[in-house]
Structure formats: C-alpha cells, structure tokens
Amino acid sequence: MSKRVLVAVDLQNDFITGSLGTKEAQAMVDRAVEKIRHFDGKVLFTQDTHSPDYLKTQEGRLLPVEHCVKGTWGWQLEPRVEAVRATTPIEKPTFGSKGLAEVLKAWDTYEGPLEEIVLIGLCTDICVVSNALLLKAYLPEVPITVDASCCAGVTPEAHRHALEVLRSCQVQVLE
C-alpha cells in the first residue's frame, strides 16, 4: 500500500458555484477530479461545516457570508467530486482540521511513516494554507505538497500570495 495521502480540501458547492464561488474554482474542478481519480494512495476529503448560527460566530462576523451550513446544497461536495469520493469527509468547523491532522499523525505512527501528503482544494489562501501548515506542525518530517493547479483562492492574487507563504514554510508547491 502506498504511503502517500491526497487531501481534497473543501471541494464544496458553496466554494465553487455557490455563495463564495469563483470562476477560478469552477475552472479547476475537472483537474481536481482527475487528480483524485488517478492518485496512487489514500484520498481523504474535508468538508467545511457550519451551523445555522454561523453569522453569530467569530468567523461569521469577520466573513459575513453564510456558507457550508450542514445539510444544505452549498455544504455538499460538488457533484463531480462526490462521484469519485470513496471515504467519508472529515467535517471541520474551522479553517484547519485538527481531526485530519490527528488521523494522519496516527497513520504515520501506527502504520509506518507517510511518504508524502498532497493537498488540493479551496480556498488556497484560507483552508488549504491552514491545513498545510497544521499538518506541517503535526508531521514535520513528512513532505507536504500543494498542487496549485488543483487549487483556487478567494482571488487570483490571494492564491499567489498563499503559494508564496507555503513555499516559505517548506511546503512544496507544484504549479
């Protein structure tokens, strides 16, 4: 079994065509699906998950756009992504997922060292960068890679800035 893991971060309707969707996110979905379909290793998914009182949370006050409310269309994985999903998504109420980090740390500890963790998804400048840096903290010796061609940011400029931050934190960035 390959010791590589692909993490598909928040490939949900609201980030693609919904309340926080962008044309860049829409343009990368087919590439992301192909990456998931042909990845040699385990594929995990995260799912941004909020409650109906999202706008009363700190995040909601700072980003006052209701999105990814559990059970709604916007919360669901994009249909092409859902069609290739083989594992239950890890729900996360915040940008970075401690649950994801703990699962991967346990695999690394009990099943032998992970060779690489690859991240794709949305949004590069928020949840992708948060999860990459969280995983770097939990698993400092495991190479972390972000495939930029399968990511999109809130804006193209924010996407580019996030990639620079990732590079400076010793995350490999594939263009």
Structure in words:
This protein has helices spanning 13-16, 23-38, 58-62, 79-84, 98-110, 124-138, 156-168; strands spanning 4-9, 42-48, 90-92, 116-122, 144-152, 172-174. Strand 5, helix 7 and strand 6 form a beta-alpha-beta unit. The protein starts with a strand and ends with a strand. A six-stranded parallel beta sheet has the order 3-2-1-4-5-6. With 175 residues, the protein is of the alpha/beta class.
Please render the helix and strand layout as text:
Blueprint: E1 4-9, H1 13-16, H2 23-38, E2 42-48, H3 58-62, H4 79-84, E3 90-92, H5 98-110, E4 116-122, H6 124-138, E5 144-152, H7 156-168, E6 172-174
Parallel strand pairs: 1-2, 1-4, 2-3, 4-5, 5-6
Apparent shape:
globular
* Separation of the first and last Cα atoms: 27 Å
> Helix-strand pattern, N to C?
EHHEHHEHEHEHE
Radius of gyration: 15 Å
Q: Summary?
A:
The chain has 175 residues and is of the alpha/beta class.
